[in-house]
Amino acid sequence: DTEVTQTPKHLVMGMTNKKSLKCEQHMGHRAMYWYKQKAKKPPELMFVYSYEKLSINESVPSRFSPECPNSSLLNLHLHALQPEDSALYLCASSVISQGAGEQYFGPGTRLTVT
Amino acid sequence: GQNIDQPTEMTATEGAIVQINCTYQTSGFNGLFWYQQHAGEAPTFLSYNVLDGLEEKGRFSSFLSRSKGYSYLLLKELQMKDSASYLCAVRDTTSGTYKYIFGTGTRLKVLA
After folding, report:
1. Residue numbers in B near A100 (CB within 8 A)
2. Which of A31, B1, B45, B80 has the fewest beta carbons closer than 10 A?
3. What is the dihedral of CA B95, B31, B82, A104, to 10 degrees?
4. Do B87 and A105 touch (CB under 8 A)?
């Protein structure tokens, strides 16, 4: 199974809402990532979890709150977002290795903030 | 700091060969990856280089020169389905953990 799943596929939320994005993988990968991608731009790293611990936060605003409940799951909690936060949110996972360690991406959640 | 540059757009003809370049500057280089991304879809892995030289994988090849901070992706026998964005990503260990930094991406248009 080389699949990363993400739910929901689409999400529309108001600026006062609280919602969560979910990501799951069963490849035994111990590194998991959240990226934000705007149209015609490359993915922009937000957070990295290594062995279920937050290892990188790329100065992301606190209205985005990541959580890694176990080695297979990654959540992104959203609260009081702004319209400019509308984007495709991609989850990825990889092995932690000196070898190839390519990232496997989920299909993404397309978020619209109204 | 980290900087990864690619041409923004390229156009090529079906059946031709195209080379997409990537230049990078990073202090903790630990490998270079190429991904393909079709519009509205997730990136998918194409190739990986960590040592200098050429890696070949069917119609796709990737080259790396670490001393020059340079890589390219070579696509042969272009097909219409190759129209996509191609992303160069550097794995960096400066922060003590693996961090994948994406380049600006190259949108390739294959014409009939």
Report:
1. 31, 48
2. B1
3. -60
4. no
